[in-house]
Amino acid sequence: MRYDLAIIGAGPAGLSAALNAKIRNKSVIIFGKDSPKLTKTESIKNYLGFGDIRGSELNQRFKDSLKDYEINFSEERVQTVYAMGDYHALMLKSGEMVEALAVIVATGIELTKDLVGEEEYFAKGISYCATCDAALYKGKEVVLIGYNEESVEEANFIAEIVGKLSFVNMYKEDINLDPAINLIEGEVPLGFRGDNRAEVLEFKSGKKIKADGFFIIKDSSKAQRMVPSVKIKDNHIEVDSHMATNIAGLFAAGDVTGSPYQIMRAVGQGQIASLEAVRYITKIKSK
């Protein structure tokens, strides 16, 4: 299916972008869930017009602003964004492809620090989508490092495909894991070693585990992994004053573009990115 605008991220920047695009009669889809950074904040005192407000309440107010508009929401993870000339193709975790004339990246920032060798061995034995790549390791030995509920679901799924699966639990206690999976708890992963690809995962304790492939499942990944050709500066997506990136039709807004990491800044940038995306969409449609 093709939309005018796809927004990756359902935080303040993404919701602001969706509202402004929809007001201008563009078809919009948002990928993402409520921002944990916002919903878990107990008190916000500097959001103009609201005084002291809980983050969860402000988030609900944001979402209420969209209730009267036809906007598609999806919690499915966007794995990769491909620039296809006059449109963009978004590869989802399920393998489905969604097309959009313009895209706004509003994913926030990745707070989990990379493991040693994670960047070096990305796509060389390390993957961020078990559902996508599990078939590559049919009958082989695999390690999954899990940081969230999704990682538990992924582990239970791929355990039926791979030969042996070890799950490094970085999520919480008492997870509902298939008993056939080798559960590793109380260990802190440090990084990967190998020649041309990741072969060994090393832990802080000195423990090592060898495998044919490794999966890292966490809440988000670096923007350049999702959009391989996007220009990065100081670990953030580089944008101009119009929130445009180096890729035509691709915009970014919010924390993913750099500090200060403030809600009002994200909302404002979401609006700017949306207005510029709408202008771009109109231009493409008029060709």
Automatic annotation (TrEMBL):
Single GO molecular function: oxidoreductase activity
Gene3D superfamilies registered for this protein in UniProt: FAD/NAD(P)-binding domain
FAD/NAD(P)-binding domain mapped to chain residues: 3-270
Pfam families: Pyr_redox_2
Entry keyword set: Flavoprotein, Oxidoreductase
Lineage: superkingdom: Bacteria
UniProt-listed PANTHER family: THIOREDOXIN REDUCTASE 1-RELATED-RELATED
Protein name, entry field: FAD-dependent pyridine nucleotide-disulphide oxidoreductase
Organism: Anaerococcus prevotii (strain ATCC 9321 / DSM 20548 / JCM 6508 / NCTC 11806 / PC1) (Peptostreptococcus prevotii)
